[in-house]
Write a structure and sequence with these properties.
This protein is α/β, with parallel strands linked by helices. The protein folds into 2 domains: about 170 residues, Rossmann fold (3-Layer(aba) Sandwich), CATH 3.40.50; about 220 residues, Uncharacterised protein family UPF0261, NC domain (Rossmann fold). Helix content is about 40%, strand content about 20%. It has 14 helices and 14 strands. The strands form 3 sheets. The protein has a 6-stranded parallel β-sheet with strand order 7-6-8-9-13-14, sandwiched between helices. The chain has a 5-stranded parallel β-sheet with strand order 2-1-3-4-5, sandwiched between helices. A 3-stranded antiparallel β-sheet has the order 10-12-11. Strand 1, helix 1 and strand 2 form a beta-alpha-beta unit. The chain is elongated.
Amino acid sequence: MFSNEEYILILGCFDTKGDVFTFLRERIIAQQERVITINTGIFGTTDAFPVDFEADVVTAEAASDLAQLRAARDRGKAMDIMGQGAAAIVARLVEEGKVKAAIGMGGGGGTYITLAAMQQIPFGIPKLCLSTVASKDLSRQIGDKDITLMPSVVDVAGTNHILKRLVAQAAAAICAMANVPETENSETKGCVAISMFGNTTACVDKCTELLTNAGYEVLAFHATGVGGKTMEALIREGSFDAILDVTTTELADDLCGGICSAGPTRLTAATEMGLPQVVVPGCLDMVNFAHLDTVPAQYKDRQLYSWAPDVTLMRTNVEENRILGQRLAVKVSASEAPASIIIPLRGISQVDSEGGIFYQPEADTALFDAIKSSAADHVKVTEYDLHINDPAFAAHLVSNLLGLLQQKEIEKI
């Protein structure tokens, strides 16, 4: 059906927005690009240009039937089915090496379907969506993908001088993005992912310095939920050689319903990919909420601290720390690759140090004891009588990680 060349995917509802997509396609082709078109509109198509994947094919990919979907007239279900079907087609095209970039347009429904399909496109392949709802919070739909959102200003409904200008710009943007050459990697020994928070910045900065001096490239991820999800996704895409998980605070948010949860799969990707990992219970002393008045009622009497006007931290208690320690240790213990857990006995965050607002030795002890009792025999648990932000602790972390990398190389022989 297609040659061995790469294409720019065009996704959208050609039944109601065919004229707009015709203009988009013409502008992309005018820049000497080849396209693949996917129609996600269930009530018809367009005869203005060839459609490579019609709606009936899209619905079939989601184990559904187009006629039944039309008859049901259930918009929500139709969006879900078309998103699933388009995602399956896109995943196959990516696997076949056909995707150079992807672009979609639409209102709320078209945007949802486009973003669902783009979830199958890995990091680095450009993805752009021209949308009427680009200014809304679409973080859940975007997830951990590098998708560019562009406001359409007017509705994507019939061509007019404003929309045509923006569509032309979107076409130019995706074509330019698709042809940016890959950045040459400097000569490094490998790439390390590291997790950080404001409360562990000093530790992460020192680790980054030491790893860089040792010849490694270091990529830091802010442990805000999205940051952890993105790190895990890139680990699964094969972007790293090792993981230094200094800041596992997202586990606490997942347990207590905080706003920085990365979900139940946090701390699993390195295990799945067989990568060496050093894990620290960094910032498990805190759960993140937004403004003070957003803290759930069941936590109103807990120890709270305003880290910023829009960030309220809740100190985790003894029982929560027992659970968190067990969860962390069990996740790491599932790894067959070299893995270790490093514990800073004098505090696990900037505010958890002697005299600090969250300094509670009994809670930390519960966390540490749970880690030690739950870790498998093959996972080395090491304690240092240091604070997490002590430069000496960072030196131990890096030394341990380099040792695991060396062990991994020996095992390959």
